[in-house]
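Q: Got a minute? One more chain.
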Amino acid sequence: MDALMEAAPRDPSGEKWINSQKLDELRLSIGDQLLLEVLDDVQHQLHTAIEQLPKLNTDRNSAELRLLSHSLLGAARELSFEKISDLCRVIEVASIEQQFDHAEPLIQQLVRNRSMIDSEIEEYRSRFLDPQRPEKH
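A: Always. Here it is, folded:
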């Protein structure tokens, strides 16, 4: 239990949730259109998780909490959204160990910061993935 608390990321308020540099590298590798699709998918997964994680934790549904946090962990890692993946990793471990009280503040960090995460994704989209701009190769 102590190891779980030590592994928990601190509340990253004021820090960036997305890694623009890693997104730039991915954009050069896969192109603007595919990155847009990936961002849309991850953002949808994030919204779904943020809506479901609190109830799963309150209901102490360890199996579903683990599956959802693991799924979001993978999606966040794909885009180097390290703060989100760190939170999801610890939520997943807490669910496996049925430490629901330890998962709650981490889930609440995601809930509280949903609009910040969305804003950062939208800012990146508007700056680098404007659909009116032709794709560069």
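A: The mean pLDDT is 89.
Q: Perfect, thanks.
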